[in-house]
Amino acid sequence: MLRIAYSPIYRYALPEGHRFPMAKYELLGEQLLYEGTVTDANFFHPDPLPEEIALWTHTRDYWDKLRLLTLSAKEERAIGFPINESFIWRGRHIANGTIQCALFALEHGCAMNVAGGTHHAFADHGEGVLLF
Fold this sequence. Notes:
The chain is mostly helical. It has 5 helices and 3 strands. It has one domain. Strand 1, helix 1 and strand 2 (43-44) form a beta-alpha-beta unit.
């Protein structure tokens, strides 16, 4: 069975007029259901990215800045979204959704993450709307 990572946590309220099309995450899942391509059973809510796995890729300093909400204004601007605890949890679920999809794909041949596939973050900072 095709597994698709999606969760309501993927939604994130942005300031009025923000250029990022956040609604696309919700609309994609709704469209797949509407056209009958998938059923609710195909979707799964990904677990949050565990700290120990995040530290395989990201520096301890960067992880701690996220965890403690101590990014500088410049670091936050590079990400492009207002940073708060909700946004960080969102990113953790999305990143681990991609990992979980990779594991499902190894077992079943294919899996997808509604919010996966973009990789702009670095080991020591986020960039281009991404933390991880």
